């Protein structure tokens, strides 16, 4: 079985388990998804949603959030990891979006990754979920599942992203990201993976 055939089989099985894969981050606008994704680094989506529910109600867009100082924003997100640096990045990104992009989140990968605190994963998450542009974000969960199942062998996130692009049709990138991340988050965990309950364990090289 080729890696492309394996990917097709794995995604079909996961689709049956998770028929409507989607991000667990809550947002109403591209800007809010961008902020939520920045906040999600070293934090769970559940923790992020608790913070953004209040944050977005009071400061829904980049113009509003720029009324805060770094210290004020940091205080509002302090339950999340790296909150001081995240506060700095979010305000710097808001400033660039307001001054360089007329208050709108850019819809191109090259422009997104120029924003402070925005890397490949964040840019791809925003493209796929805010603009419905095919993108396959690779985070720690996707990286782990892809390597354990043999879909990718790259030692870096970028190498894994390139490998997955080669074996998964472009129109499936968005769903593939969600299926792999949710499987990694709840079943194929870094510690104590639920191998006995895993529907794709037969494809896995790391069955415990």
Could you walk me through the main structural features you see in this protein, from its secondary elements to its overall organization?
- The chain has two domains: 3-22 and 135-203, Endonuclease Iii, domain 2, CATH 1.10.1670; 30-130, Hypothetical protein, domain 2 (Endonuclease III, domain 1, Orthogonal Bundle).
- The two termini are 23 Å apart.
- It has helices spanning 3-17, 30-39, 45-58, 62-65, 70-76, 83-100, 109-112, 120-130, 140-148, 157-167, 173-186.
- The chain has eleven helices and no strands.
- With 208 residues, it is mainly α.
- α2 runs antiparallel to α8 (120-130), α5 (70-76) crosses α6 and α9 (140-148) packs across α10 (157-167).
- Helices cover 56% and strands 0% of the residues.
- The chain is elongated.
Largest sheet: none
Q: What is the residue-averaged pLDDT?
A: 96
What is the percentage of strand-forming residues? under 5%
Secondary-structure element pattern, one letter each:
HHHHHHHHHHH
What is the CATH architecture annotation of the largest domain? Orthogonal Bundle
End-to-end Cα distance:
23 Å
Structural class: mainly alpha
Please bin the fraction of helical residues: 55-70%
Number of domains: 2
